[in-house]
Amino acid sequence: MASSQATVARAPALAGARRRRRKHGGLTPWLFALPALAVYTVFLVYPAFTSLYFSLTDWDGLSPNYHVVGLDNYRAMVSDPVVVRAAINNVIWTVVTIVVPVILGLTLALLLNGKARGKPILRMLFYTPGVLPLVSIASIWGWLYNPNYGAVNALLRDIGLDSLAQPWLGQNSTALAAVMVPAIWLRTGFPMLLYLAALQGIPHEQYEAATVDGATRSQRFWHITMPNLKPAHYIVIALSLIDSFKVFDLIYATTYGGPGTTTQVMGTWMYFNVFQYYHAGYGTAIAVVITIVAIAVSIPYVLSQTKEHDR
Amino acid sequence: MTDTPYTRRGFLGLAALAAAGAGLSACTGVSNDSSGGNSGGGSNKLRLFTYEDTSTIGKLKEQIAKFDQQNGTTTTVDDLPGSGAAVYPDKLRTELLGGSGPDVWRIWGGQIGAPYAKAKQAADLAPYYSKYGWDNRINKNAIDAMTFDGVRTGVPFFVAGVGVWYNKALFAQAKVTEPKSYAELEQLNDKLVAAGITPCGLGGKYGWDIMRLFEYLLEQSAGPELHDKLLSGAEGWDRPEVVTAFTNFKKWQDKKWLPQGALGLDPADVEPQYVQGKTAYTITGTWTEANAIGAAKKPSTDFGTFELPTDHTPTRHSGFVEGYMINARSGNKDKAAALIDFIMQPDTQKALGITGSTVAGAEPDKTTLPLSYQWTEINKTSTFYTIQDQAFPKQQADQYFSVQSDLLQGTVSPAAAAKKMQDIVSAWAKQK
């Protein structure tokens, strides 16, 4: 009797558990996810937490011994003038290498969306720099900028602008701007392609109706094209933002952070500390800060994408 | 969409976490793995990591194949050419931390090789020095440059003297001859500029190449004794001799004795320009005879070399050593040592075309490398001071390069540069 009462009492609870299992799929999805989760844990989660731990130590990056120094590395960053310079450079880099390629990409997309001749070739031409290895780009632009034999100064001299010929990569005043030019060159193709795809998705009827209503070309652009490009803007800007923040290879290969430390960014300064100065603890602390900032700037994008798809 | 238990929000969140993990994991390199080394104990496999130039790697591989044939070993040679001391040590360090470091690696002496000894990644080679009698066969000064805290962790095979390497045709065109004093060197530069020739081809990217000029100017203004004390931190840098050296350094740029925009130029592009006839000379070591003159298939007789005049006795030049270390965690240390001993044989050194061998009886061939041979003669009467990027740890060297850069751009005065150097060196001396 007692047993049957217990069974009756347990029945709703069991039914609830079954419903939850049905709703959440039970263990099966986890079993499918297990291999990926294992790889993720071993190759990402564990090293990430190890890095976090080492950022709290004075490890030199080679020795088996180190001491836990608490938040000393993070405090040291505040008084490190190169960190301040690198952070400012990161901000300048991010703003310039997003705004200029986005504007150029949009302009090119608008031009190529019309009835331009040789569209496929032009599209390929503009996108090609984006697929070149960054180290090759650094070499190409290193030669172009050579103050004595480079094409940039040669062109300036040929057109009578000798006074503008500069040692572009060899002076503090022009080095960062000079490295940003190849970054803009290689990053214009990506927004161009995305905008082009988005432009081709805008229904022609909207333009026809606007034309019938007497809308000017400018009005059609601001009131039809731009609103329709909103999702593309979001993707382009968010991805460019994340990409800009990760800047490392182009600066490393072009100026090596110089002259002096003029073109250091957070990524290169982290690398110098971890891999060259034997200050792995400090360098890792810089990496942690970079990661936190990268996550912070990614959150609006992730949330917007989530809302977009959950709608 | 929302009725699935695993929402896109969740997956995107997970993806963001993954990106964060990837960012952080990129700089994790520690390994508690004690096995290390590329080869297991008792195995016949060895791995050697080096930074030979593309023009010399073939010779090294040939000799190593010979060693393998004689000893039944299989040695893999990994090469990272053209990277210089700015990049190669990073890759080596990463390999060592990853637990798959090479059994034998080539490295510079001084402060570039020191971290590997300090971290005990490099084995103590004292037993092998005894076994193979390296003490009696290798230049003692070179051994000292690879001895750290009294422990011999490296076997030096190359000792480099740095001096002027010039294009004879361009010297003749400007009607100049080898200078015997610093004043004559300045006159030579003026005459070259007047003849429309850029005198000295050095590049400031990475800092270490253009540094060769400043360290010479410091030797010239400070003299041997004070220069050594400055490098060790025993004397302060905020003094007139250093200010003079910085003043002269700036003068070299202002009078166009260096290429335009030298600070941003890559040494790999600028150094060989004396061979191409674009600059009159460069300041470099004997390797240039094989790497630049030989690679351009030009006869050595078209070029000349001399020690920079310092106006001091004894005359010294900048120099450094390079050698091999053995992985402390290698399971094959005995065979690795045997490989190094094979490389240190005079015949092997000659076959490798080592232009500044530390091994007695392996001097460069006077007929094939006449200019390098000339340096063997110079080294008999002239000693060297430690090249500055080996005298300072990398961080201090970079800070010093930054001072050089600011000075040449005119953002600091020579006196302020001397003060900055004092701050850098005194901070380092306190850490020591």
How would you sum up this structure in a few lines?
The complex is a heterodimer of chains A (311) and B (432). Chain A has 15 helices and no strands.
Describe the structure.
- The complex is a heterodimer of chains A (311) and B (432).
- Chain A is an all-alpha fold.
- Chain A has a single domain, classed as MetI-like fold, CATH 1.10.3720.
- Chain A contains 15 helices and no strands.
- Chain A has helices at 2-24, 28-54, 72-78, 81-113, 119-127, 134-144, 151-158, 172-187, 189-200, 204-212, 217-228, 230-245, 249-254, 266-276, 280-310.
- Chain B is an alpha/beta fold and 432 residues long.
- Helices cover 49% and strands 14% of the residues of chain B.
- In chain B, the strands form two sheets. In chain B, strands 1, 2, 3, 6, 7, 8, 9, 10 and 11 form a nine-stranded mixed β-sheet that branches.
- In chain B, a hairpin with a 2-residue loop joins strand 4 and strand 5.
- Chains A and B meet through helix 2, helix 14 and helix 15 of A and helix 1, helix 3, helix 4 and helix 19 of B.
The third-level CATH topology of chain A is MetI-like fold
**What is the CA-atom radius of gyration of chain A, in angstroms?**
27 Å
Range of strand content of chain A: under 5%
For this entry, what is the oligomeric state of its chains?
heterodimer
For CATH, the homologous superfamily of chain A is named as MetI-like
The low-confidence parts of chain A are: none
Low-confidence stretches of chain B: 1-6, 14-23, 25-38
Shape of chain B: globular
Q: Examine the secondary-structure arrangement and name the CATH architecture of chain A.
A: Orthogonal Bundle
**Which structural class is indicated by helix and strand composition of chain B?**
alpha/beta
Q: Rg of chain B, please?
A: 24 Å
Average predicted confidence as pLDDT of chain A: 88
- End-to-end C-alpha gap of chain A: 52 Å
Strand-helix topology:
The complex is a heterodimer of chains A (311) and B (432).
Chain A lengths: L1 H23 L3 H27 L17 H7 L2 H33 L5 H9 L6 H11 L6 H8 L13 H16 L1 H12 L3 H9 L4 H12 L1 H16 L3 H6 L11 H11 L3 H31 L1
Helix pairs in contact in A: 3-15, 4-8, 4-9, 4-12, 9-12, 12-15, 14-15
Chain B lengths: L7 H18 L19 E6 L6 H15 L2 E6 L8 H10 L6 E5 L1 H9 L7 H7 L1 H4 L2 H6 L1 E2 L2 E2 L2 E13 H6 L8 H13 L3 E3 L7 H25 L7 H15 L12 H4 L2 H4 L2 E6 L2 H8 L8 E4 L10 E10 L6 H11 L2 H7 L17 H12 L2 E3 L1 H4 L2 H15 L5 H18 L1
Parallel strand pairs in B: 1-2, 1-3, 7-8, 10-11
Antiparallel strand pairs in B: 3-10, 4-5, 6-8, 6-9, 6-10
Helix pairs in contact in B: 10-11, 11-20, 19-20
